[in-house]
Amino acid sequence: MQTTNNKRLYSVIGASSLGTLIEWYDFYIFGSLATIISEKFFPPDNPTAAFLATLATFAAGFIVRPFGAIVFGRLGDMIGRKHTFLLTLVLMGGSTFFIGLLPSYATFSGAPLLVLLIRLIQGLALGGEYGGAATYVAEYAPANKRGYFTSWIQTTATMGLFVSLLVIITCQKVLSKEDFNDWGWRLPFLLSIVLVIVSIVIRLKMQESPLFAKLKKEGKTSSNPLKESFGKKKNLKMVLVALFGVTMGQGVVWYTGQFYAQTFLLKNCNIDATQANTCIGIALLIATPFFIVFGALSDKIGRKPIMMAGLLLAVICYRPIFGAMYDMSNIKTKTIVSTKELKTDSKLVPNKQDSFLTDEVEETTTSKTCSDGSVITEVKTETYVAGKNASGKPVIKTSLLLSDVQRWMVIGMVFALVFFVTMVYGPIAAYLVELFPIHIRYTSMSLPYHIGNGVFGGLVPFIGTLIFEYSKTSTNPSGDPLAGLWYPIGIAALCFIIGCLYVTKPKEVKKERIII
Questions:
Q1: Per-residue pLDDT for 53 more than 60?
Q2: At a CB cut-off of 8 Å and minimum separation 6, what does 177 contact?
Q3: Hey, what domains does the chain have and what are their CATH numbers?
Q4: Residue 357 near residue 401, CB atoms below 8 Å
Q5: Which residues fall within 8 angstroms of residue 32, CB to CB, at 6 or more apart?
Q6: Which residues contact 36 (CB under 8 A, 6 or more apart)?
Q7: Is the pLDDT assigned to residue 58 strictly greater than 80?
Q8: Could you tell me if residue 396 is left (phi over 0), alpha (psi between -120 and 50 degrees) or otherwise beta?
């Protein structure tokens, strides 16, 4: 058995992970700013339609990811891993930077089309990035620790989201609300160019995967990876099992636990954007190490039981968790203040210390004149977080400010959602890499992964929001806030059943380690 230089292995993981993290940051900064993007780049006359259009544009980037997997997967299997995912990094970084320069809809009516075009380029680039990075690391790692080492790549998606939230929150804290909404929202997009340049410099110093270099030297690379991956019945069967038995469920769990949770907190629960993003960021930071935990555990007990357990927990727990978040935001608080005024024209200052809403407060004042001429005034201050006033009519509100206890409740619930993600996502790179032979691995693993994540997972925010909007009726104008969850629950349940029936342990991979 050969030995690997561990220092070299960790430098490979670090360089691959950094570049992939930056690509995820670039990809997710769009989703993190979906609300403000809908205001800037889409017609303002119908806010709901604009927001849905933004989510659809966001989803478009996911839908084209499989095409990116085909294009760049083919290149990766023919010319090598290193140069292919270096190209994807340049495309992603340039596209994100350009979004920060785009004119708004008020200035240029063609802005929605430009945003869509850029989003499609981003999706194509990401379609080639993940498979290359995961394959590259896996081909350096020893077979008996492949789950552990590839799980570091798995952290990059969540950390990319975390970094995007961190940058947004920092900009919101430094700038006034008016400045951020006016021009400050562009800064997270423009900053990406600095991160991309740093990553390009690092990746240029990387060497080709040793297993692929050996394969290329021996002249055994595939001349037609697409035909070999999908034209042969045996390999096509493995692609379909990977898609319907693992990755489509993993995709909906990933995007429900992070992106749909963010949309739900902002749109359905009406929580203040900075507070919601902060809660999600803290939960992501606490949960991220579990990608490594479950990746390493999969080396010992297998990939399948951990991934299936994560899917099952998501199916069972989604409605209770999201329901608890919504119920918490629906609390009605009342503050009754009695004051004794000596003059009827005195200005009353009602006590609003228990009020969580920033600007939607209803006050009822009742005055009583006493025999001595003084006036006793009772002020009732009611805060309606549920979105309805005392008469049952909807009210327009800006944001709910959480108490300290509520913040930690939200963090705990989002942590649980991300914990399910770590169970399904942590071992999946090792599973996919081991499922396919080296000469067509990049192509074969990339397509089911990006269909599962890009199509099934990427549509979660859009379809979830759309189902919620359709749940509104004349008798229930507020709609069912949990209606959107039926989509990810259904997909995850179906994937769990297929996975239990058809996912098997890949054939034993030759346990070799390459001397670097």
A1: yes
A2: none
A3: 6-329+400-502 (1.20.1250.20), 332-384 (no CATH)
A4: yes
A5: 161, 164, 165, 168, 188, 262, 277
A6: 181, 185
A7: no
A8: beta
